[in-house]
Design brief:
The protein is α+β, with helices and mostly antiparallel strands. It is about 45% helix and about 15% strand.
Length: about 150
C-alpha cells in the first residue's frame, strides 16, 4: 500500500492510498481522484520524504524550513475547519436541489416551515432573492462529501 501526499490545482493538500504507483497513475488518468475540498480532478503527487536529517545546520538556517512547515500546518488547519463546516452544513440542511429559490421564498414568506436548506440557484435567481431581502450564501460542497464518508 502506498500512501501519497497529493495536491489539487488550488493547492489543497490531501492524502491518498493506492495499491501501487501504477494504480495511482491509472486512477489519475481516468479522473477518479478528486480533491476532497473543491472536487477538482486536477491532482498531482507532491514530493514527500519520510524523514529529513537536518542535524548540523545552524538554527538560523532552519528557520525558513520551520516557517514553511508552519504555513503548511495553517493551511491544513483551514482545510480541516472548512471540511468540518461543510459536513455540518450537509447534516443540518435539507437538499432542495433546483427548487432552492422557490423554497427559500416559501420559507421567507411563511408558506413553508422554517428550516435550513441548500440547493442550486442561478445568478439571476440569487440576485432576485437578495433584492427581496432573503439572505443566501454560496457555499460550494465537494462532490466527495455528497456520498458516503469513510
Amino acid at each position: 500500500m502506498k500512501v501519497l501526499d497529493l495536491a489539487c490545482c488550488q493547492n489543497h493538500v490531501f492524502e491518498g492510498w493506492f495499491a501501487s504507483e501504477e494504480d495511482f497513475q491509472s486512477q489519475r488518468e481516468r479522473l477518479l481522484i478528486e480533491c476532497p475540498v473543491c472536487g477538482t480532478a486536477s491532482v498531482s503527487k507532491k514530493l514527500s520524504a519520510p524523514r529529513l536529517n537536518l542535524t548540523g545546520f545552524a538554527s538560523d538556517e532552519t528557520a525558513p524550513a520551520q516557517a514553511t512547515v508552519a504555513v503548511a500546518g495553517a493551511e491544513q488547519t483551514l482545510q480541516a475547519a472548512w471540511m468540518t463546516m461543510a459536513r455540518r452544513v450537509l447534516a443540518s440542511t435539507d437538499d432542495v436541489g433546483e427548487r432552492f429559490a422557490e423554497e427559500a421564498r416559501k420559507i421567507h414568506y411563511g408558506e413553508s416551515k422554517e428550516r435550513g436548506i441548500r440547493g442550486q440557484a442561478s445568478r439571476a435567481e440569487t440576485e432576485s432573492l437578495i433584492e427581496e431581502g432573503i439572505a443566501v450564501m454560496q457555499f460550494p460542497l465537494p462532490q466527495a462529501l455528497k456520498g458516503p464518508l469513510q
